[in-house]
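Bumping my old thread because nobody answered last time. Still need a sequence for this structure:
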């Protein structure tokens, strides 16, 4: 993974259109954005935290941006961030990441949605923000995100996000919501491969794939077209054994020609032993891959997005507790958290993100290191 210097961050976000009229501008927009990024890097969670960080670290911040009129008050920060265009902010983030991160061949890109639980405002009739993010599993960074109003709108958000990503040579993984023929076609036309989860939204296809593997299990999966990988994990009082099966026999499926690039069907059987109890679960997939090892890595990486991205956002950045609700602020502060996560990732000290944020709050040199990549 190769990041550019933070001058690139300033360069890309300086292109963002300022919604304020000139006579009302006391603070430059890029100054406020840099302030917010540095504050969130250092543990800030709300507008008053950002203001306090700025007042404490004003002279340090002026190493990067002028802040000619000092630090804006918390309400001004909130008003500026909430007024920024969602699509404009997304575009700046995407262009920054396109320059900052070079994806290697075979990178697994997991797309998944997350609801910001406390971003809803019942009095104003505003529903909770739901955001679909693209996560580069090996590099461990957010590549982009698209806002949706409800989880059901992931169907329209996923194509929009895929259109903005460089997919050539990558493997895209999606849960059942993204198991759509149009999405499979879009990924293949972009030069990538896909692994799509089958559930009730593709009832007939799921039933056919399930039936195939149930019949194969009666033969102990002893078929030439089936490849198999096994993994086992032990920890926290449980043992989990997973069996990954990939078959290139599509003869039992109807409508195969409607799925662009379809080469295989897959099943993952998870057997969990915990507190004397045993549970078994099967999950089914369709894929343009014909290599069981790549299939296993892709499925495993997609499940990891819960810990690698969503868990960190909730536990380290306390995203689910955030009550930021004004205008476009829930989305834009969410993007700023993604920016902070990516900056924390590139720093190689073997400590948790939480400890890095504490160190950034206390240590000017370390915060400078996070921003400059030195």
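Sorry it took so long. Here it is:
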């Amino acid at each position: 993974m190769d990041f550019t210097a933070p001058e690139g961050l300033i360069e890309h976000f300086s292109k963002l259109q300022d919604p304020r009229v000139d006579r009302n501008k006391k603070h430059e927009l890029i100054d406020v954005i840099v302030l917010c990024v540095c504050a969130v890097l250092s543990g800030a969670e709300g507008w008053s935290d950002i203001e306090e960080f700025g007042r404490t670290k004003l002279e340090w911040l002026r190493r990067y941006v002028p802040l000619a009129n000092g630090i804006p008050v918390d309400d001004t920060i909130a008003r500026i961030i909430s007024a920024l265009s969602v699509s404009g902010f997304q575009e700046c983030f995407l262009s920054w990441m396109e320059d900052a991160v070079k994806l290697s061949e075979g990178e697994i890109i997991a797309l998944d949605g997350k609801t910001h639980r406390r971003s809803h405002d019942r009095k104003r009739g505003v529903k909770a923000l739901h955001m679909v993010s693209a996560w580069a599993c090996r590099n461990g960074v957010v590549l982009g995100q698209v806002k949706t109003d409800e989880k059901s709108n992931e169907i329209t958000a996923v194509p929009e996000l895929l259109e903005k990503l460089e997919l050539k040579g990558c493997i895209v993984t999606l849960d059942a919501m993204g198991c759509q023929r149009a999405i499979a076609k879009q990924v293949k036309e972009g030069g990538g491969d896909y692994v799509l989860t089958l559930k009730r939204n593709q009832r007939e296809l799921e039933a056919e794939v399930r039936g195939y593997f149930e019949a194969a299990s009666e033969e102990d999966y002893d078929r030439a077209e089936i490849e198999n990988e096994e993994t086992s994990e032990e920890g926290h009082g449980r043992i989990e054994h997973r069996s990954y099966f990939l078959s290139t026999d599509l003869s039992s499926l109807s409508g195969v020609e409607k799925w662009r690039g379809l080469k295989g069907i897959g099943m993952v059987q998870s057997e969990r032993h915990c507190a004397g109890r045993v549970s078994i679960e099967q999950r089914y997939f369709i894929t343009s891959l014909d290599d069981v090892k790549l299939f296993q890595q892709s499925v495993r990486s997609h499940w990891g997005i819960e810990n690698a991205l969503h868990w960190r956002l909730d536990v380290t950045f306390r995203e689910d507790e955030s009550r930021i609700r004004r205008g476009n602020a829930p989305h834009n502060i969410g993007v700023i958290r993604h920016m902070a996560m990516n900056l924390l990732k590139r720093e190689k000290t073997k400590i948790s993100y939480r400890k890095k944020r504490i160190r950034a709050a206390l240590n000017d040199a370390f915060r400078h290191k996070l921003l400059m990549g030195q």
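The CA atoms of residues 248 and 264 lie 4 Å apart. Let me know if any region looks off to you.
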